[in-house]
Amino acid sequence: MERTLISVAIICYNQVEYISEAIESVLLQEHPFDFEIIISDDASMDGTVDLLKKYKSKYPSHIKLILRKKNIGPSQNFYELLLECKGDYIAVLEGDDYWTDKSKIFKQVNFLELNRLYIGCSHRYKVVDCNSLEISPEYFGPGRPRSGDYTIDDFRNYIYFGLLGSALFKNIFLNKKKEFEIIKTAHSFISDITLNLLLILNGSFFVMDYNMAAHRVIIKKNGTNFKSVINSKNQVED
User: Fold this and answer.
1) pLDDT (tens digit, 9 = 90+) per residue, 28-53?
2) What is the DSSP string of 52-97?
3) Distance (Å, rounded) from C-alpha 174 to C-alpha 21?
4) How many CA atoms lie within 13 A of 101 on its CB side?
5) What do you get for the CA distance between the two ends of the chain, in Å?
6) Quick one: pLDDT band at residue 228, thresholds 50, 70, 90?
7) CB-based contacts of 102: which residues, under 8 Å, 6+ apart?
8) Between the CA of residue 113 and those of 73, 105, 117, 168, 172, what are the distances in Å?
9) What is the DSSP letter of 8?
């Protein structure tokens, strides 16, 4: 296991206020694995890129940046980011969310190493506001999965594996299959649900009871962050 490589894939766009908290939560992880942090910025205009470059200069051996000159949209940005991951496992994080447990990576990788039939696992998370103040100690809203095995029947009933930032899974994208492109083509904004489906079609998935991340809810009128845009366009209903 000491040779295991973890790819932490971070997607961001106009998140200068929050991206540091996301990156620091990754750097604070305690585990024995080699790791890479790949951050794909979708042409931010708010100072995010300058901040990312500072992190790159501070951690050149661990951080790789993909800095897009033209905005390509969340789904394509996410898909192309996944293709850049070289690790045995991929952990995903959005630029305005963050991890709250320093042993998150270790717990999830350890589970998958000991339970080889599973392709991935997720976990519980809390909900915070724009100032990182707690809204709810744990998410209990629509789509919340039960603990244990997560199945295709759950997906059919509009139950999802959880927050994108809670997922860690085997890197199926090392084999660049044509059908994986559905992540960018199914919906231009929503790609986490498509990833959810792809994973359970390729293996078993498990939901852990550990609460190890924070999901930030930021919806601003005329805001350019992902959640504001998706809310204004009713993309969730679509």
Assistant:
1) 999 999 999 999 999 999 999 999 99
2) HHHHHHHSTTTEEEEE-SS---HHHHHHHHHHH--SSEEEEEETT-
3) 29
4) 17
5) 42
6) low
7) 28, 29, 30
8) 34, 12, 9, 12, 15
9) E
